[in-house]
Amino acid sequence: MRQFKLDNRLQTCANFITDGAVIADVGTDHAYLPIWLVMNNKIKGAIASDINILPLKRAEKNLKKYNIKDKIKLLQSDGLKKINPWEVDEIVISGMGGELIAQIIDAAPWVKNEKKRLILQPASSESDLRIYLRDNRFKLEKEKAIISLGKIYTVISVVYTGKIEKTAIEYPYVGKIYEKIDEESVAYLKRQIKDLENKNKGNLLRGNINEYFSNSCIIKKIREIISYCGGDNFGS
Q1: Which of 17, 91, 112, 151 is most buried, with most CB under 10 Å away?
Q2: Residue 31: which residues within 8 A CB-CB, separation 6 or more?
Q3: Hey, which bits of 51-137 come out as E strands?
Q4: Are the beta carbons of 104 and 26 closer than 8 angstroms?
């Protein structure tokens, strides 16, 4: 069967997964990620879950198409509620808002285990997700900004440590993006600045002075990160 390519978003998720793991792909849709991982001998197996039946029917057609039904289990589940802790090593939750991802994690206390890894790709509200992860004793291992189909995303790998890490004021907006400055990460950081500037316009109108100055401080920090890491050499 002819191989297929993942988009940058899913490919980055795939790159974060440990070789030989068994994964849960939550919100699998067409099951492209677990299918690609199995076809490339990167994982032992997978549970591809979705809350709705229609995506699972699409996924089932793809499993038949690529003849790998024996290594991927399809499961209709609300988040991780029907997945048992001993069934998977790593969990991928992608393409959802950060607040929903946090709710899915919160509803499955068994993921608070140092032996489990989470690969998360929020479609929005990344700052809320990072705050949730920190406050619930998850550590960001690594993070990568990517541009896929004209949109800027981030992929985050986290593990539970049982400790709340001290973080800087800009942490909710930058995470670990700054550890590798490239065109994608600079684009992501500049988008964060733009979003904060837009919020500050509203803060001025509403007289939210404290939040205005807090955001202004964060904007300054992000600009310093971009400049310090040589990000000014990339385009606007």
Answers
A1: 91
A2: 25, 48, 58, 59, 62, 63, 72, 74
A3: 72-76, 90-97, 117-124
A4: yes
The one-letter amino acid code at 122 reads P
Contact call for residues 140 and 133 (beta carbons, < 8 A): yes
**How far, in Å, CA of 111 to CA of 115, rounded?**
9
Nearest-Å Rg of the Cα atoms of the chain is 19
Task: Please tell me the pTM assigned to this model.
Answer: 0.92
The pLDDT value given to residue 68: 86
Question: Which residue stretches of the chain have pLDDT < 50?
Answer: 236
What is the percent of the chain with per-residue pLDDT over 90, rounded to a whole number?
A: 83
Residue 46 parent element (H or E): strand 43-50
